[in-house]
Amino acid sequence: MNEPSLVIRKFSDLANPTRFLALVARVWPWMAGMTICLFALGLYLAFATVGDYQQGDTVRIMYVHVPAAWLSMMGYSVMAVSALGTLVWRHPLADVSARAAAPIGACFTFVALVTGSLWGKPMWGTWWVWDARLTSVFVLFLMYLGLIALNRAMDDPTRAAKVGAVLILVGFINIPIIKFSVEWWNTLHQPASVIRLDGPTIDAEFLRPLLVMAAAFTLLFLTLHALAMRNEILRRRIAVLRRHAARAAGRPGGAA
Amino acid sequence: MIALLVRDLRLSVRAGGGALIGVLFFMTVVAVIPFGVGPDLNLLSRIGPAILWIGALLASLLGLDRLFQAEREDGSLDLLLMQETPLVLIVFVKCLAHWIATGLPLVLASPLLGLFMNMDEMAIGATTLTLLAGTPAITFIGAAGAAIAVALPRGGLLVSILVLPLAIPVLIFGVSAVHAAIEDPAPFLPPFLILVALNLFFAVVGPVAAAGALRLSSD
Lengths: 256, 219
Description:
Chain A is mainly alpha-helical. Chain A has helices at about 1-15, 15-50, 60-90, 95-125, 130-155, 155-190, 205-255.
């Protein structure tokens, strides 16, 4: 009974941007350090393991590609939770979080698409296939860009965040439908040539670096997200200060 | 509610002929396609349903940004917001009126365009039927986008960008239902029923989201 209330109190403590900034300032060097260490370990493991007997060295692309794809979905989930935070709990930092997560998630999605394309060329002989997975990730990318465009288009950040939160949630409901329908669409038209990404079940040899890289990517996401949130808070403060300064400058002149 | 429906219908028919412009756009898009892919009748009859569907999708997105913007400009949106009746219901009725004014003409125009595309009677019938079932879904989900962009000065383009990815399932199931109707082995009913289900689903989600967005952007 006590435990959740404590958690909630801690969580709402963070609603104070100053406290959040202090926490970020204390934590982010550690997070960045751990990210770098994990990346070093993961990249070492990725290059130390033997290549696949069929795919050769190109299998190493997987260690970047798969975590990026995971993170692209996690980014949208973070945004959806933030959107709930904005609309339901009215957490003041939730809209900052949603806004900060959008470009990062879009970047990870982009990385996943590009590395997938680079991997697809030697493996499948083509840069792009209208495969179910590729298509749904591409749609996800488009949705990210749409959300960023919406955020950019509105002047008032809090209102943009609220309206954007509605869109994020609608998109979140829709993503499973899109994914399922896209898969259906693909298998209906070309059942014979569906390209499966999971050829052989993954060996422990490949799994270890993959997991380390996934952890590294997740930490990278969290670090970037925290820093982006910090930047967003500072940017809003600067905007407010500027507005105050402009108002103070206008007052003695009596410009009306 | 009925008064609102009639009012919206009257406005859309009279002011500027928004409904007819949608149909005109639909016809233009479909007429331009043969210039792009060449006048091969066999090819056209094969991709005809898809062209009709894409044209209808684009045409129904075209007028969406006006769904709430005119009300916002003359202030009647605030009156609607303050009414006793639930906002979700109001949005639903407005969507319905918008669909009758812009979506239904598209559906009625599609058989004629199907003839241009050298489609046989079966394909024309199936396309018309799926459009009848599918275009309301586009309007409903588009209402959410329109409500989100209502406060923006140039929301029209943004609405299309936001709504198009969400409308992909409707497109997929609409076209695949038509293909199933033309080619015998695949059954027609499952994709068509899923299309209807999507329609009902968006009829719930769209107005709710649109009402939420309208409330948030009003204050």
